[in-house]
UniProtKB/TrEMBL annotation:
InterPro entries membership: Fe-S_Maturation_MIP18, FSCA_dom_sf, MIP18-like
Residue ranges occupied by any MIP18 family-like domain in the UniProt entry: 5-76
Matches recorded under SUPFAM superfamilies: Fe-S cluster assembly (FSCA) domain-like
Name recorded for this polypeptide: Putative metal-sulfur cluster biosynthetic enzyme
Length: 99
């Protein structure tokens, strides 16, 4: 079974920012997904560098992606460059939040 970026993004869409109540994909927190054979590298951010749930969300994302059949290694990279802004969220999320 082939591992695709789409499958990884689908798994990541099951990870929620519990403070805001939306998944990390819809919030625009995923900056990059690279798939090489059975290894995945994910670059993501948080809505704020002071996010108290950062460790939990990173681990949840790593775990969800690791559950995809055929994945051997998942590397998570947390970055704040560029900083997250509400414009990075999906249209639906911005509409619900009144942004």
């Amino acid at each position: 079974m082939s591992i695709t970026k789409e499958k990884v993004m689908e798994a990541l869409s099951q990870v929620y920012d519990l403070e805001i109540g939306f998944d990390i994909v819809s919030l625009g927190l995923i900056y990059a997904v690279e798939v090489e054979d059975s290894d995945v590298r994910i670059k993501m951010t948080m809505t704020t560098p002071m996010c108290p749930l950062a460790g939990l969300m990173l681990e949840d994302a790593r775990r969800k992606v690791s559950e995809i059949e055929g994945i051997k290694d998942v590397k998570m990279e947390l970055t704040f460059d560029p900083p997250w802004t509400p414009e990075m969220a999906s249209d639906d999320v911005r509409k619900i939040l009144g942004l």
